[in-house]
């Protein structure tokens, strides 16, 4: 077990087990579809909080016309974005992307500027993809609303409700909105009739653009995503939204998706119904999480130091998890208990590391008593969240 915590990494057979577990982690995959400059990057920035530079470097080519961005890390993604490029170019053939993405994508997000109606090739390709999997939800995000009423602030409150109408219909108008915006929304809805399930007008802008509400319609779009995703995937997406919304510290805002991703990975390992298998996997997952967090904070050596402190202070979950392994002989109940403890313990360890690092930055190395209290406070809160299904 000591070998697992060393920076050399786990043996190759454990790598295969990690890969197998990743395949079972409930991380939503969003297939982004739309022309260049249609607002796809703004959507990724809004959902993840990542900067444009991080998004640009995060995407990696995966087919001739598409690329993939697992967020926050490829090891333990919370969300994965598949971005199809060149759909507005003549001769685009979605066959390659269908072969690569059809089984992966849980939801398709089509981005279209509100004032742009030159998307015949986009509709044609989308129709092919839609026919290949008619039950997969498709959400149309109508972006750049301010282009229809330049130099004006958006009306408040947000006036559209996409969930108040049958699937495929224009969003219900429940407040005041400029006439041109309402007309264009209806015309765009007619253009995509039969191809999309929900239509959400949004305007995601940067502060320097001068709009009071820089995420206009964003909360409604997230609600539509939650309603559209399969039930098994909603919890991960909802947790990311709730946790990220409450964060103010820059480092912690970037650290939370990493913690959540590894916590989901650990919970999946903890749910394996075979007793004691996860006792080998969980230290690997937790060690990788702490090292990723250490790199995020810019001090990789702190990761090793913290892991040594955590081991000596007994902050890991192995003792408690070992006791609970016996319960796995009870069908269903044991897996649920193992998943809750594994996910909560990993989450608590990650939060404890963030607090440890913040205090070190301030010149105060936490005492052993402080570390234990911090960890167990986080563990108690995390267990309530995981077992309560929030």
Automatic annotation (TrEMBL):
Subcellular location per UniProt equals: Membrane
Principal subcellular localization: membrane
Q: In terms of domain of life, where is this protein from?
A: Bacteria
User: What Pfam families does the record tag this protein with?
Assistant: DUF697 (PF05128)
| Topology within the bilayer | Multi-pass membrane protein
Q: Name one GO cellular component term.
A: membrane
Parts of the chain that traverse the membrane: none
**What InterPro entries would the database entry show?**
DUF697, P-loop_NTPase
User: What are the alphabetically sorted keywords of the record?
Assistant: Membrane, Transmembrane, Transmembrane helix
The name on file for this protein is G domain-containing protein
């Amino acid at each position: 077990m000591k070998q697992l915590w060393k920076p050399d990494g786990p043996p190759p057979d454990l790598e295969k087990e990690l890969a197998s577990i990743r395949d079972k982690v409930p991380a939503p995959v969003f297939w982004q579809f739309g022309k260049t400059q249609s607002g796809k990057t703004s959507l990724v920035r809004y959902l993840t909080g990542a900067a444009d530079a991080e998004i640009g470097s995060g995407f990696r080519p995966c087919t001739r016309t598409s690329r993939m961005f697992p967020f926050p890390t490829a090891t333990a993604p919370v969300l994965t974005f598949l971005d199809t490029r060149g759909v507005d170019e003549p001769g685009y053939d979605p066959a390659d992307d269908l072969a690569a993405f059809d089984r992966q994508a849980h939801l398709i997000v089509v981005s279209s500027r509100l004032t742009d109606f030159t998307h015949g090739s986009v509709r044609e390709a989308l129709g092919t993809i839609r026919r290949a999997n008619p039950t997969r939800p498709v959400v149309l995000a109508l972006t750049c609303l301010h282009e229809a009423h330049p130099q004006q602030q958006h009306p408040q409150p947000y006036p559209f409700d996409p969930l108040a109408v049958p699937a495929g219909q224009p969003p219900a108008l429940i407040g005041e909105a400029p006439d041109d915006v309402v007309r264009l929304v209806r015309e765009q809805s007619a253009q995509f009739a039969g191809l999309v399930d929900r239509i959400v007008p949004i305007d995601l802008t940067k502060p320097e653009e001068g709009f009071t509400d820089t995420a206009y319609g964003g909360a409604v779009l997230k609600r539509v995503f939650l309603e559209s995703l399969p039930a098994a995937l909603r919890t991960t997406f909802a947790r990311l939204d709730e946790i990220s919304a409450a964060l103010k510290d820059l480092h912690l805002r970037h650290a939370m998706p990493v913690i959540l991703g590894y916590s989901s990975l650990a919970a999946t390992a903890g749910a394996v119904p075979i007793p004691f298998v996860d006792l080998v996997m969980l230290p690997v997952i937790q060690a990788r999480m702490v090292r990723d967090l250490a790199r995020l904070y810019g001090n990789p050596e702190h990761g090793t130091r913290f892991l040594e402190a955590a081991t000596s202070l007994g902050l890991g979950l192995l003792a408690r998890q070992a006791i609970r392994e016996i319960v796995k002989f009870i069908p269903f109940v044991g897996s649920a208990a193992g998943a809750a403890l594994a996910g909560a313990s990993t989450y608590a360890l990650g939060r404890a590391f963030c607090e440890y690092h913040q205090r070190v930055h301030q010149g105060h190395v936490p005492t052993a008593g402080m570390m234990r209290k911090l960890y167990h406070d986080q563990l108690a809160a995390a267990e309530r969240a995981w077992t309560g299904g929030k």
